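Practice problem 4.
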């Protein structure tokens, strides 16, 4: 006969039950059931996917239609599905249509204020896992969004409290942070964001250096020029050859590029 299993003490049983409770949350059950299927169509897309898997900071620049945001969303979902240390996706947006990154005068809570700027992300998440799961993940705060104005003072591997009542007590540890429209972020704000990287977090910068809406030095160009040689950081430059959304986009980009050269 085999050895009889040792009976757990009341304290040990309580610890096991607590572990099961903590590791069987609705967020965990939902991410476990997600199916994310993405096929890379170009070598640079493969490089982006590999960089997200292997690096702590990822910087990707390239024209519209190359799949930067879609792939970042897909890989972020895969990470929170596969690895317990990643618990949420945080979208950081540069709100360039509003002066000095301030959005306080818009009606509604923070999520309602950010909604117009979140459409591209929501659309990509819905394409990947469906509308119902996307909506629920946002309700559970497994997917969250914050404007750059809220980044100062945040350390992304610890629990923090943000003054705004809509985000009071929000926990940003073990996060995958996706920074969108990075070309519209100043070098100063870029420093603020990068220095909030936590121990168990990843940070992904996305943008197109040629589509700068704000004045001042382009933060994305700064990153591409100064951080490519750091081992823990991956820099990927997409080109018009990587456009997969619609072949016409590459031709449109060429026209604008030629016009820009004439102005210079």
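Answer key:
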């Amino acid at each position: 006969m085999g050895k009889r299993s040792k009976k757990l003490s009341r304290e040990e049983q309580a610890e096991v039950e607590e572990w099961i409770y903590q590791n069987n949350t609705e967020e965990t059950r939902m991410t476990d059931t997600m199916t994310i299927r993405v096929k890379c169509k170009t070598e640079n897309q493969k490089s982006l996917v590999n960089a997200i898997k292997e690096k702590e900071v990822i910087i990707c620049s390239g024209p519209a239609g190359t799949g930067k945001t879609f792939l970042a969303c897909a890989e972020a979902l895969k990470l929170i599905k596969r690895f317990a240390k990643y618990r949420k996706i945080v979208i950081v947006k540069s709100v360039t249509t509003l002066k000095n990154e301030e959005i306080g005068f818009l009606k509604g809570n923070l999520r309602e204020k950010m909604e117009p700027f979140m459409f591209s992300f929501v659309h990509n998440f819905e394409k990947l896992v469906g509308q119902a799961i996307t909506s629920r993940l946002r309700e559970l705060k497994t997917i969250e969004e914050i404007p750059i104005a809220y980044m100062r003072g945040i350390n992304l591997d610890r629990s923090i409290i943000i003054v705004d009542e809509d985000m009071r007590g929000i926990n940003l540890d073990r996060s995958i942070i996706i920074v969108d429209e990075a070309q519209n972020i100043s070098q100063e704000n870029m420093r603020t964001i990068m220095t909030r990287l936590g121990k168990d977090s990843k940070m992904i910068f996305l943008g197109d250096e040629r589509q700068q809406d704000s004045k001042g030095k382009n933060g994305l160009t700064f990153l591409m020029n100064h951080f490519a040689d750091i081992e823990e950081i991956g820099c990927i430059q997409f080109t018009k050859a990587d456009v997969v959304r619609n072949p016409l986009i590459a031709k449109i980009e060429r026209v604008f590029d030629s016009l820009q050269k004439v102005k210079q």
